[in-house]
Amino acid sequence: MNHLLTLAELSVDDVLAILHEAERFANGETWKVNKQTFVANLFFEPSTRTRCSFEMAERKLGLEVIPFDADMSSVQKGETLYDTIRTLQAIGVEAVVIRHPSDHYFEPLRHAIDIPIINAGDGCGHHPTQSLLDLMTIRQQFGTFIGLDVAIVGDIRHSRVARSNAEILTRLGANVLFCSPPEWQDTENRYGTYVDLDTAVKEADVVMLLRIQHERHDEKMGWTKEQYHEQYGLTIEREKQMKKTSIILHPAPVNRDVEIASELVECERSRIFKQMENGVYVRMAVLKRALQKGGTQNGYHIQTCALA
Amino acid sequence: MNHLLTLAELSVDDVLAILHEAERFANGETWKVNKQTFVANLFFEPSTRTRCSFEMAERKLGLEVIPFDADMSSVQKGETLYDTIRTLQAIGVEAVVIRHPSDHYFEPLRHAIDIPIINAGDGCGHHPTQSLLDLMTIRQQFGTFIGLDVAIVGDIRHSRVARSNAEILTRLGANVLFCSPPEWQDTENRYGTYVDLDTAVKEADVVMLLRIQHERHDEKMGWTKEQYHEQYGLTIEREKQMKKTSIILHPAPVNRDVEIASELVECERSRIFKQMENGVYVRMAVLKRALQKGGTQNGYHIQTCALA
Amino acid sequence: MNHLLTLAELSVDDVLAILHEAERFANGETWKVNKQTFVANLFFEPSTRTRCSFEMAERKLGLEVIPFDADMSSVQKGETLYDTIRTLQAIGVEAVVIRHPSDHYFEPLRHAIDIPIINAGDGCGHHPTQSLLDLMTIRQQFGTFIGLDVAIVGDIRHSRVARSNAEILTRLGANVLFCSPPEWQDTENRYGTYVDLDTAVKEADVVMLLRIQHERHDEKMGWTKEQYHEQYGLTIEREKQMKKTSIILHPAPVNRDVEIASELVECERSRIFKQMENGVYVRMAVLKRALQKGGTQNGYHIQTCALA
């Protein structure tokens, strides 16, 4: 089954193949399913970016999206996730995209469900399409991952982005640096080296800021927003220390003037909105991969001129 | 007006015609509206199955579905259901599917609204498309209804499924048995005979389990889940007493290990997910019937090969 | 940028051009975008009419609507409206329709966002497409605005309809009368003359009733519904005093037997449901205008026979 649950399950070749396909979509190539094909997006947590991005990717592939509203679903009557997905499958849905607050919600589903599941985020676990769009954005800039220094800054411990990215970047040949308040360091994540922020900013080719996820913290954090910005945020002063060719990433939504100075969100080296654009292409590639079973081409390509 | 409000209003011939049409859809036949046609699904209660099933049926017929979110609608500002539907009609909607918590919500609408209304469930009243999909599933197994013993087990009194099914099954020539805790017997429903569960399980061709609808009970029920399962549930032991050719139905969502042992949900004689699949075909047939006014064919057939 | 934020920003010629285009759509003309084009509707307040009407208009133009659920969006995580719209733009959305509870929410966006924004209502501010559909309905009846007496009755102070309509009607040559409880008069709106209700009803060509917006009042109003109806409502007796050719408008949802006697909602001179029908045509015209940049025709016309 062509699930996409975590990047750790993919070989480097698989990852590069997805990035290659995404780049083709970015260059204007089109692929459409050749029969009416239904998918559903099951989002059990708030999301604008990821949800709209999947929807856009699906529509661009000619897929029909069956609306699913978690608040109005039978999950409210105690139905299990397995039964919900089996129901959608019985009705005719051919792939599901799921975001869920529980880490590894997909483990009981992995071998039990025989339509593709695409993980759009599991609790503090993984977020593979976010990682893929980060990788695509980095590769567009540098052409390679080998030897790049990538600094991941912020709440390393609770971030699915940090977890997914550090592992795959390391496998792709990049060198990962972590910067984090001591409370948010993640001793179980062995794919990065902790350094202080000013070192990281000066040395990194990519400064990847993590969002403070107020909604995932039971305890209050010990700083004001201003203090966090001063100590762990990308201030206007710090940005000036970055190397000429270095770029800024952030998974968004941005807490302006906390993780990053508001003026920098759309500065020349920021790729924050570029990441969102790339997200659509990456998700098109992932969906195409999921729907192509056993090598049969379940759609058709249209070669179009590049989009500028 | 081609409303579908209760099955009691349909003749046996009408019911059989819908089932026949549904079977054609199940065999791969297609019918598409031949102009842009808009419908809306007004769900004032949570639902996955019925809502997604209607949406799927609509899309398969080429209909465009105008999203309607009860929580974000003017019903929140006190608008009547009549005014809401008239509004949708003024805007260009040509049929509405409605689920509503009030029994017989449709009575003030029946003669006042001149676009078809399809009842997707009214309180403890009726749920005609659920009955139709049950009938379709039974007929696929036995080829007929005449002389079949159908046991309906559970909360007979609060169940719109029990109400709709007992009446139409009796008219179609089946023999209906009811099994229910004394508190949930329905003395007004004269279309079945109360028997004890073990008798029913042994004799019935169809064992139709009803969901415990916690959300419709003001009072607490007097049993634990384990006690209910032991006394009124289809346990693994009881399933072994069923006749070789008998089948199990459940309208879902299933409370696993309450109405039915979890291991039995997908057992060989279970038709629970088959019911959901049939639901799409039944709703396609009902929508087609609703949109064909005065004998004019408002669409076109495509004869395709059977879908296996 | 072809935003539509307030009617006050449009010339009389612009307004008449939109009305002319809407009338062509009402007469059965079709215009479709000639490539896959995405829009999003951002509704931060409940709405049936406006939301479904925009959705219908969009679908009729062949646009694809990316679902956006304010309750499940990152706005819940504190994202600014600017960042949300920029995100949608990055993802590929080419126009946004916004309803928001804050007056003038669009001011920080006006020069910062370079896809068209269509205002579907801002707090107690403006509601330009509602005004346009009122104008279209009036012009269908009288062929002109010059010299017409238009009475606007109700909560003048909190009504975005009153604000938008009084200004544009005056510019178009009509004479605006206001009727309002003293507490709800609006001394800053200089485009109308306060008269008593019975005078207005007798003299006006158009009696435009405003909805009592319970949801916008912090304080309780000093009357019962019956008292309001008696003093400021269109009772059955008052309707008899209207001129033969005069018409009744109401933006809906109607509070029946408060602003207007329930029996009058669909009386011969009521245009309340006609307004809703016209709303779709007006929104098609507005969306077409927004998507046609720099004179390039981003779609194609189909001349069809008139409907009706």
Automatic annotation (TrEMBL), chains A, B, C:
L-aspartate binds at K77, R160, R211. GO terms for biological process: 'de novo' pyrimidine nucleobase biosynthetic process; 'de novo' UMP biosynthetic process; amino acid metabolic process. Residues 147-288 form the Aspartate/ornithine carbamoyltransferase Asp/Orn-binding domain. Pathway: Pyrimidine metabolism; UMP biosynthesis via de novo pathway; (S)-dihydroorotate from bicarbonate: step 2/3. The keyword Membrane does not apply. Its EC number is 2.1.3.2. Carbamoyl phosphate binds at R49, T50, R99, H127, Q130, A252, P253. GO terms for cellular component: cytosol. Pfam families: OTCace (PF00185), OTCace_N (PF02729). It comes from the Bacteria. It catalyses: carbamoyl phosphate + L-aspartate = N-carbamoyl-L-aspartate + phosphate + H(+). Residues 3-140 form the Aspartate/ornithine carbamoyltransferase carbamoyl-P binding domain. It is an enzyme of class 2 (transferase). Heterododecamer (2C3:3R2) of six catalytic PyrB chains organized as two trimers (C3), and six regulatory PyrI chains organized as three dimers (R2). Belongs to the aspartate/ornithine carbamoyltransferase superfamily. ATCase family. NCBIfam families: asp_carb_tr (TIGR00670), PRK00856.1 (NF002032). HAMAP family: Asp_carb_tr (MF_00001). This is Aspartate carbamoyltransferase.
